[in-house]
User: What shape does this take?
Amino acid sequence: MKRRALALVLAVVAVMLTACGLSKQEDGSAGGIDMRIAMITDSGDITDQGFNQEVYEACRNWSEINDVPFTYYKPDSDSDEARNASVDKAVSEGANVVILPGYLFAGTIVSQPELFPDVKFAALAVGADAICEKGVGEDYSGNAADYNVTDYYREENVYCCTYQEELPGYMAGYAAVKSGYRHLGFLGGVSSPAIHRYGYGYVQGIDAAAAELGISDEIEVEYVCGGQFFGDEEITGVMDTWYGEKGVEIVFACGGEIYTSVAEAAARHSGKVIGVDSDQQPVIDGKYGQGLTVTSAMKGLTQTIADVLTGIRDGNWSDYAGKIENLGIVSENPEENYVQLPIRSTQWCDAFTEDDYRALVSAMYSGELIVSADTSTMPDVRVRVTDHGTIKQSGAQQ
Assistant: This one.
């Protein structure tokens, strides 16, 4: 059954906070709504050069253009309690639209929307699996299809979306092999479905390109998760070993600021890097050396933010409320999709041109090319993949 008990217990608190912070909120119709936007960061910060930063900048830019107040909040620790406390604070200070970036907010979606029914919540990269895991608890079967996800959160004031990360992961792996790389690596952050969709898509793209070139037996892939979303000396040491001793040529750095460990090692050993979530070439190349970043596997966070906030502004919240969308390829035109490679900064070459990339996207759009999103096991491929597990088990977050 739905979790109404907590809402009843804390109803007085919720009413008081709503009265203090949202006294001016209207019905959401165009011309009347008093939008006050808050973003809560997950375990990272708005300077992580990745997921949090892109969401922050998208919210800030939209708010400036539309003359809407915007504030961000950083929880004081990496926990559901701290994230929920930041939501409480945001609402008490007037927020009536709350943006939550990342699967770590699944617990917040389970508990907070019932407390603040007049606040609209938009959770990016939060899907049914994460919500059910938090809602069901330790008895969760591991399969969201076994449950009715709406039993575990108040869908009327919540919009959730996930991204088909396996698609830009595939694009990046395919492009790398076509561009001449033969020993490739993947460094994820915390082991999670989204991270492995990126990684397993990457492996599938590597495998497909190798098969087309007839070189499957020449390709090696090293695969590991760091156990956290930031780089440190230990993880950098592993990357030094990959580039310097194993002969890895390029690593897909997938997980917040964990790219710093990859970039530091790549710069020392004349290696290459693939970025994630946003176009990381300006940041990585600007700090660690020009030409370091071959491409980035991106998802359309900025477009999603603009869509949702514009919908709220225009009184179209009903188009979003209660949905858990899985965003991916919606057009043959790469720039119009929610997942893509950056055309401006990707290092195109004769063996993999921009036209080749556009053809790849077209095949995905038409359904000619299908990429598996299954994260239950490493894809069955012809190239040699070594799964090294997780570097820092103690750093894994739940």
Summary: Residues 276 and 297 are 5 Å apart (CA to CA).
